[in-house]
Structure formats: C-alpha cells, structure tokens
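Cross-check.
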Amino acid sequence: MRLALVLLPLVLPIALTAQLPTPPVAKKKPVTTTLHGEKRVDDYAYFRDRNDPETIPYLEAENRYTEAMTAHTVELQKKLYDEMLGRIKEDDAQVPVPRDGWLYYSRTETGKAYPIYARKRGSADAPEEVYFDQNREAEGYEFYDLGGMEVSPDHQKLAVLVDTNGYEDFVLRVKDLRTGEWLPDRIEKLSWGLAWASDNRTLFYMTPDSAKRGDRVWRHVVGTPTAQDVSVYQDTDVLYNVSVSRSRSGEWILISSASFTSSEWHVIPAAAPTTPLRVIAPRRPGVEYEVEAGEGVFFILTNENATNFKVMTAPVADPAARNWKEWLPHRADVFVEGILPFKRHVVVQERREGLRRLRVTALAGGAAHDVSFPEVAYGVSLTGNAQYDLGTLRFSYSSLVTPPTVYDYAMDARTRELRKRTEVLGGYDPSRYAVERLTATARDGTRVPISLVYRKSLVRDGKRPLLLYAYGSYGATTEPTFRSSIFSLLDRDFIYAIAHVRGGQEMGRQWYDDGKMMKKMNTFTDFIDVADHLVKERYTSADRLAANGGSAGGLLMGVVATMRPELFKVVVADVPFVDVINTMLDASIPLTAQEWEQWGNPNKPEEYRYMRAYSPYDNVTAKAYPRMLVTSGLNDSRVGYFEPTKWVAKLRATRTDANPLLLKMNMGAGHGGSSGRYEQLRELAFRYAFIVDQVSIGLIQ
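Predicted model, tokenized:
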C-alpha cells in the first residue's frame, strides 16, 4: 500500500482532563542574590533539593500530566516502536576482534535488553565462551550500564565498572575467567578509567572529587584489601580532568590530565607498575597534546603553533618537549583529529572539507596514502583495532542511507575486505532515499554545512515537515551516519537534517573556537540561520519545522526557542543545560569548574553579561513559545534534573501561549536515559510521536 501525507487536527479533549502541575512557589522563599549590580531572583531554586517533600511529588505530577496530554498518541507510539524494532536484527553479533589468538565479540538475542560478551580461542570454529552476560548481571536492576570493561593481558581476568542508577558512580568488580567466579574485590564510587598492568594482578582505577571530576588514579593489587591501594596521581586543579588507560602496544600505562585549553601526560611502564610515573611534558597555557605509544617513540598530537594540530614524535628514553620532532606538519586546511599507531604503520584521522579521512603511513619508507570513501556525506570510525602488531586496519563506515559497514583494510596492499554490513529488516531499500550536502550562509558570512536525507522524490514546495538536529559544543562533531529509527519519520514524508553549527569541529579547530566562550552565540545563530535557509529554499516551512538537541544541544534548543519561537513549530529539548548562570556559579555541581573554559565564569562581569544574554532560564519572557517537550533524568549527574524542571515551571508561569509544554522525567535513569535497548526505543518512539502529532502530520494507508 502507498503511504500518503495528510494533515490531522490536533486532538484536544484529553488535554482538558489533564491537571496542570502547579509548583508550590507560594510556600517557598525565592533565592535572591545580587551579581555585578543585577538583582537575581530564583523562584524555583528549591527544586534542586530532591529531598524536599514536594520535589518528587511535583515531578510525578509532571509525568502524569505528560502522560495525559499524550494519551491520544499511545497507538502511534506503539506503531513507531514496532516499526523501529522491526528494522533491527535482534539476534546479531559484532565482527570478532582479534587479540593474542583470541576472538572477542558481543552479540544480542531476541527479547534481551543488553549485550552478551563472548570470545573464542584460536578460530571462529572454536567453542564459544560467554565471559560477561549483561542481561544476567542486570537482573533485579531497573538500570544497569557499564562504564568500562577490560580483560587482563593474560586473558584470565575481567574488570568492569558498573552503574546501577545512571548517576555514573561506578562499582569496580573483578571476575576470574577461568572459574567464572566474581572475586571479592569490590570498590565503589569510582570514575571512568581502567588499565591492567602486565603482571595481570595490578589494576589502575580512578576516583572523582566531590564535584564528580575524575581527579585521582589509584593502583590496586587484585586480592588485596582496598585500604592498601596506592594513590599514583592526583590533580587538584579543578579545571583539569584526569584519565587512565593502557597503550595499545601494551608497554605503557598512560595518565592524562587535561582542561579545555591545556594538557599534561604521564607514563608508567606496564611491566613495572610500581615505578614512579614520568611526565612527557609539563602543562603550558594554551598547549594541548595527546600521547600514543609507537615503536621506540611516542607519537604526540599537539596544537602548539598549530591551530589544526600536527603530529610530533619523541624518543621513549627522553620524551621531553625539547626532543620532539615534527612527523606530520600543520596544514591550515586539514584538521588532525587523532592518531592510531601500529607496529609497522600509523593511521591519522583527518578532517577535510567537513568530512573525515584516513591517512595511512608505512613506517618503513614513510609512504602515505588516503583511504577513500564514496558518498557526499558520511561518517567513518576506527573500531576493533585491539591488536597492535597487525597490518590490517578495521573501520566502520556509514552514511545517512548506508547502514554501518565494517571493513578490514590491508594497509600495505591497500585493499579492503567487507566483514559485515548491518542488516536492516522491514524491507529497507536505500534507493528510495536521497542524501544532500548543502550550506547556509550565516549572518556573518560563514558557510554552515547541512546534511539532509529524505524520501524520493522531493518537491521543494515547503509542505514537507522537517526535523532539524544539532549539538554544537565541546568540539564534538556530529557525523551524518546511519540511524535506522529515523526512517519512521522519513516514511511519513519528513526530511531529517543535521546543522553542523560552530562549536563542533566539522570544519576544523577554528570551527570549535568560534562556537565557545565569548563566541558561543555563533552556535545559536548558526542554527537559526540554517533553519531560515531551509524555509527560504522551501524544503519546509515554519509551521512544519521541528528542532531537537540534547544536553548542550538542549541548551541550543532553549536558546533558539527563546530567540526565534515563531520559526519552530515543535522543539524537543533532551536533558537540556538551560540554567547556565546558576549552574556555572556553583562549582560543587558536576562539570562546572572545568567548564569555565567552555562557557565562561559568571563571576567575571564581562563573561556574566555574555552568558546572561543567552541563558534560557534567565531569558524567559511573556511571549508565545513553540510546542515543547522537555526530557530529563532524576539521576542525571551531568545536567541536574532541576535545570529543566525549573525552566519548564518558569515557562508555564510566564508564557502567553497555550501550546503543549511537557516535562517527561525518567525517575530511574541519568543523562543517557534508560540503559536497555528496548526501553531506549520506547523513549525514542515517545519523542517521535510527539513530533509527528504536534506537526500534525499522520500516516494513512
């Protein structure tokens, strides 16, 4: 049957029976402060106290209201869920990753929410050994996520970091893979990061400070009391985050400490884990670098006198900065994103003209070549390269219409072998869809890339609904990669578009620098200018335009809904960072202090005024806003649940429109929502149903 586009009237009667949540403002005393001569009154500050007797009941009331207001979409939610699940091969397995004669992989089974981690020894025909079944371990928990998983060098022990509430307070557990038994070792309230030493007994882990900043690395010997663990490194500078890992060569424990503008690395020989750590190069203002171990050298990626980064080498014997030698020079038109050394090759991830390229260099002779990719917009990532001494590079390639495809690339022969293309069920046919890459001119003349996908054939008459997505912060690049779920919108005649706004690094490091601190406004105006361009070029119209972003992208949603509410019919803000000033004033809140180099420090008058101009919570005014869905998680440690809660409450008390304004609070999860794949799909179906319903586009047969 042919799918047709129709406009449906909004279903309002259910809304008349929904009880609008009313914050108990009258019972609470507002928090009043004065900053840089401005009196600041926060009527909803009390929401930060989750132990306040009225906080949880209020959030539950918001959820009941949201459920009532969306009750008429339940059937659509189920249909969307069934469609999205129907495209997924539930019984599936990753391409095995070779490591020291073992083949490691994960697989999924129908009806099970989590992966099963397994391995085989010697060949793919060997018996399977399940070494971690996340489904079994998650029994009895509503939420169960992993923050790390590392098998020891001798393949006889497994260390995992487990989160059972979404707050990212990890518990370290160690399993004996010979017996299948969990060892007594158990360490709680940890941060990200695990690394095994070569003795297969020594394990490095991390703890956070009171603001959840990873700040200290510890050394633990399996089977000994935690009280005997040794603090190996601590950074007390609140601007710096610490990390720990083991080099792919297996020779080194790498410890980094990095802010958004400076970094410092230390190394410990993995074969001598009690050796005092050695610094590669002391931190210097404005100088960032990363370290990867090669054959007798460290490869160092740095921005020193190189905006788009360059690659240096340093001898292992004395890697001080005075001994660094240029290996790959800085190029103004090429952004170096990362390096992956092998025993006989080095792979450099580069970005040119907004797209990632792979540059392969043979260490014997120095010949270099690029791995080519066919489409106008795509994403490629290095994955499954655990074996350092191989001559084969593994990468995953996809585009907005090409499912994830894993290749093994022979670096000397320059040939690729297709190992797997993710199977998309439900009759998926890529020839039915088209991808475009275009640009919009921002108000300052900058050309902003846009990636689009839609069902053929497109008539640009402004009648198609369009979902516009962006993130645009921390230098995170939004790749135009495959998402099978989005086809439930495309088959309802939606266009899906990604705005590659400043604040990411799509167009190089300057693209990031021009979208943070005192240039952060570029992120928001770029998104608006992209939306205006898509309307002007009649891809869509303002009454059919939906916008979505999460976390820092949720801040973007809050700002554009404030600046240009008439431009967007629907806005979905996921876990949005919207109370910018209050959060950045409180260094006890996770992420705050180090992000003074990302957003600014409101204790500084000039930076306060700049942030004050866009902070959504501080700019709620009496006007009409778009139809809005705001999501959050009660256990979110990255963007506190109270930020979106306060924002929604203030919007309700101030706005002049009667459009739907819904807050959906996940009472048992954190920043990323539910941990199981089926619940994640249900949450996505709920979002999509809200968008489809509010744009008034339906599907008929």
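Residues 1-16, 697-701 have pLDDT under 50 and may be disordered. The chain is about 15% helix and 35% strand. Passed to J.P. for a second look.
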